Amino acid sequence: MPEQTRTAAIVVNPVKVDAPALREALAAAEKRWGWAETLWLETTEDDPGTGQAREALERGVDVVIAAGGDGTVRTVAETLQGTGVPLALLPSGTGNLLARNLDLTLDDVENALDSAFDGDDRSIDVGVAELRNGDEPIRRHSYLVMAGVGIDARMIAATDDDLKARHGWLAYVKAMGKVLRDKNELRIRYRLDGAGVHSARAHTVLIGNCGSLPANILLLPDAAVDDGEFDIVILRPEGFIGWLQIVVKVFWENGVLRRTTVGRRFMGADREVRAMNYLKGREFVMRLSRAEEVELDGDLFGRASALRTWIDPSSLTVKVPRGT
């Protein structure tokens, strides 16, 4: 019997893509690789990708392509997690955080579709977070890149959406200036991998499955998407000197020196600075003295006074260019 023609589904955020151009590129890729017509599923304001990804699974497709920003990618991945059906990325947003951390080519639709139809499979870890706020029901969500409480979540909340649409990540600069005037600190108690409970005061806590952010910022230099662990950084600067330590560590040591052999020799033995505390593990439980905004992969998920997060290792298959 002849081999059954393979079929893809594409979950499209219509605000983020040029639909006519994408349909044309899809048709060319289907013909190039001998695939059937792709199932086209658009997100809506009420459903950012969950229902569409479930429909794709019910239709028995061979791969699901996420065409949109980080929110679309996260939502589709959450549905595909643990199913074995591969996720392909067609980066179309401002951050494209997972694509950057997988070293995928951005702004190249043809290359992205070639990877979707003829790329290699790569298993990556997924972070899972349970959020609790008082007596409210526990909310559970998955994330691919980073979960954050503190300055980063407040910065996202303060960002002007219209400004972000026009100027991308530059919009966060204005929001950051507003947030840094906020002197409120987090008071937290946390437990890592079931060990003892620790107390700390901090400005922000970031739990990362990946380490790189836009603008070539390497926040978590040891993070990897497939090592079965996440990396955590607790930022606790004290005044101007503390912030200066963070800037030097992130932008100079992580962003410049660590990227080359000569730079790593110049940097010498890795050392922590007082303003940053790095941790690594598989499960992190945190309680806050008051409810705070929580962000997952750059989107806000409401306020929480307690957070439990863990790694679901190798639970998502993603498509990458063949031979990488």
Automatic annotation (TrEMBL):
<dbReference type="InterPro" id="IPR016064">
    <property type="entry name" value="NAD/diacylglycerol_kinase_sf"/>
</dbReference>
<dbReference type="InterPro" id="IPR045540">
    <property type="entry name" value="YegS/DAGK_C"/>
</dbReference>
<keyword id="KW-0444">Lipid biosynthesis</keyword>
<comment type="similarity">
    <text>Belongs to the diacylglycerol/lipid kinase family.</text>
</comment>
<keyword id="KW-0443">Lipid metabolism</keyword>
<feature type="domain" description="DAGKc">
    <location>
        <begin position="3"/>
        <end position="133"/>
    </location>
</feature>
<keyword id="KW-0067">ATP-binding</keyword>
<keyword id="KW-1208">Phospholipid metabolism</keyword>
<dbReference type="GO" id="GO:0005524">
    <property type="term" value="F:ATP binding"/>
</dbReference>
<dbReference type="Pfam" id="PF19279">
    <property type="entry name" value="YegS_C"/>
</dbReference>
<keyword id="KW-0418">Kinase</keyword>
<dbReference type="Pfam" id="PF00781">
    <property type="entry name" value="DAGK_cat"/>
</dbReference>
<dbReference type="InterPro" id="IPR017438">
    <property type="entry name" value="ATP-NAD_kinase_N"/>
</dbReference>
<dbReference type="GO" id="GO:0016301">
    <property type="term" value="F:kinase activity"/>
</dbReference>
<keyword id="KW-0547">Nucleotide-binding</keyword>
<keyword id="KW-0808">Transferase</keyword>
<dbReference type="GO" id="GO:0008654">
    <property type="term" value="P:phospholipid biosynthetic process"/>
</dbReference>
<protein>
    <submittedName>
        <fullName>Diacylglycerol kinase family enzyme</fullName>
    </submittedName>
</protein>
<keyword id="KW-0594">Phospholipid biosynthesis</keyword>
<dbReference type="InterPro" id="IPR001206">
    <property type="entry name" value="Diacylglycerol_kinase_cat_dom"/>
</dbReference>
<dbReference type="InterPro" id="IPR050187">
    <property type="entry name" value="Lipid_Phosphate_FormReg"/>
</dbReference>
